[in-house]
Structures are given as C-alpha cells and as structure tokens.
Amino acid sequence: GAGVSQSPSNKVTEKGKDVELRCDPISGHTALYWYRQSLGQGLEFLIYFQGNSAPDKSGLPSDRFSAERTGGSVSTLTIQRTQQEDSAVYLCASSFRPRGIGEKLFFGSGTQLSVL
Amino acid sequence: AQSVAQPEDQVNVAEGNPLTVKCTYSVSGNPYLFWYVQYPNRGLQFLLKYITGDNLVKGSYGFEAEFNKSQTSFHLKKPSALVSDSALYFCAARGENRDDKIIFGKGTRLHILP
Predict the structure, then answer these.
(1) Which residue of A has its CA nearest to B47?
(2) If you average pLDDT over residues B37-56, what whole number do you get?
(3) What does the pLDDT look like over B56-105, one tens digit per residue?
(4) Does residue B34 sit at the A interface (CB-CB below 8 Å)?
(5) In angstroms, rounded to a whole number, what is the distance separating the alpha carbons of residues A102 and A87?
(6) Cα–Cα distance between A69 and A33 in angstroms, integer?
(7) Strands A10-13 and A111-115
C-alpha cells in the first residue's frame, strides 16, 4: 500500500479482555514504532523495531504489553487483561533509516482503543 | 535519558502575527530534531527536520525552525500566522547513535484567532 495501515481503526473491549492491534508499515521501511496518544499525555513511546536489532521495549508501561514484528514487516501490539487506563489512540509509524541520516516518520491513522 | 519538552500546552496568536512554538531537548551526542503537525481528525504529518548545517531550517506550509545548540532548543516559527495553521504541534528528537529511538514532546495546541 501507499502508506502505513493500521487495523482495526476502532476497538471497544471489556476490562480484562486481550486485544491485538495490527500495523502494516510502508514496504521497505526498516524502522517501526508504536506510540500511544492520550489526552494531555502527548505521544508516549512504547516500542521500537529497527532491522534485525533487538527491539527497544523501554516504553512498554507494563508486562501486559508486548509486540512483535514478523519478517521485518507487519507488527502486532498485544495488550493482555486490558484496563480502563489503556484506553487511548495507538499509533504506528515507520521509516527508512539509512545509516547516519535522520529520517522522517510516516504515521498510520491509529487504532482508537476503548476499554469499558 | 532522552527527553523533549514543550513548555506550553496552548499558544494563541492573532492571524497575521508571527508565531513561535517552543521546544527543548536532551539527547546523547548530536541531535536529530523534528516537528510534526496533527490537524483535526487527520494523522500526524512531518513538517521539517534538522540534521546538520544551517541552524535555520525551512519546512512545509511556510514554517521554519531555529536550532540553538547552547540552549538545546528547536523552536518552531512562522512569520505570519494563518487560521488554517490551527492544529496540534509535536516536537521530536533522537540521538546520533544508529539505534536511538525518536521521542516526542507532549504537544502544543496552536490557536490562530481571526
């Protein structure tokens, strides 16, 4: 596709349920990020994949959150036992990161997660 | 640890006046700096970036930003604001190491008053 694709666009779930959010980055992009956007919290970094390097998981808020990236392309963010405070917009972004050059990110439209 | 600060939650400017949206950063080594904009009901869009070279960088929609190494700042500017510039603006930064991640500030909501 032409851009970063995220699905679903909206997800309503009950507290305690698990959810999976999907991101299809732009083909050929080596870097993939997940961010969370909450009112008043800006863009909170969650996890970063870069090529074959080990992912930077330093932003994951708890062990209920995990993410994987298969084949260097599609990524899935999984939230287990969802809580109401997990409600937010989850944004995926990708970029092509040649060595030593600052790249720009291309963002998806996000998944609006609502935990009831 | 890396950090980006946007000290103003909201900035109000009259149409036609110059605008400034402030940003300071803390990263390892030489910084790579960015501004992104989020218009209502639209995704985040890249505005401009600083990698090296001239301290004043120009970007989309007439925006520019000034890099100041001594003050570790990267303020966004525009000489004459338009009502259509009203949006949420995010400053972002990363360090110079290959595996450094990009982190964002909390955002500044810009209101241009007609």
Answers:
(1) A104
(2) 90
(3) 999 999 999 999 999 999 999 999 999 999 999 999 999 988 778 899 99
(4) yes
(5) 32
(6) 10
(7) parallel
- Please tell me if residue B98 touches chain A, with a CB cutoff of 8 Å: yes
Q: How far does A33 lie from chain B, in Å, by closest CA?
A: 9
Assess contact for B22 and B7: CB atoms under 8 A.
yes
Say if B40 is an interface residue toward chain A (CB within 8 Å).
no
Q: What angle do CA A35, A38, A43 make, to 5 degrees?
A: 35
Instruction: Tell me the chain A residues in contact with residue B32 when contact means C-beta distances shorter than 8 Å.
Output: 102
Q: Which two tokens mark A87?
A: 């409600």
Chain B residues near residue A45 by CB distance under 8 angstroms? 101-104
Residues from chain B contacting residue A99 (CB–CB below 8 Å): 98
CA B21 to chain CA mean position, Å: 7
- Tell me the CA distances in angstroms from A17 to A10, A35, A57, A114, B93, one per residue in order: 15, 21, 22, 12, 35
Higher pLDDT, B96 or A90: A90
Measure in Å the smallest separation between the Cα of A34 and chain B Cα atoms. Answer: 11
Counting Cβ atoms within 10 Å, is residue B25 exposed (0-12), middle (13-18) or buried (19+)?
Answer: buried
Helix (H) or strand (E) holding B58: strand B56-58
The structure tokens listed for B16 are: 């036609």
